[in-house]
Design a protein that fits this description.
Elements lengths: L51 H5 L4 H4 L3 H18 L1
Length: 86
């Protein structure tokens, strides 16, 4: 699966504990990454500064769904489930 242009769900829904340029403490679940443009494109895509966790994330129908809103819901649910498990 290819990323949906302008989705940005993976840059909003999950928490990221590693440092992000401009967000040294990472980001909370539901918080918009500072590197996400108003058009929902990652400013760090393909750059060395992009966190490994972001580079490792691959689009998949199970987490991206069929539209941006569904991706936010699915990733939000996964975030909640992993938070409960820890």
């Amino acid at each position: 699966m290819q990323c949906r242009a302008g989705c940005g769900a993976c840059c909003i829904a999950p928490s990221i504990s590693s440092s992000i340029p401009g967000m040294p403490n990472g980001k909370a679940a539901g918080e918009r990454c500072i590197q996400l443009s108003p058009e929902n494109y990652c400013a760090l895509f393909g750059k060395a500064e992009r966190p490994a966790v972001c580079s490792a994330f691959l689009p998949d129908p199970d987490v991206c769904g069929s539209r941006n809103e569904e991706a936010i819901q699915l990733l939000g649910w996964l975030e909640q489930q992993t938070a409960l498990a820890s």
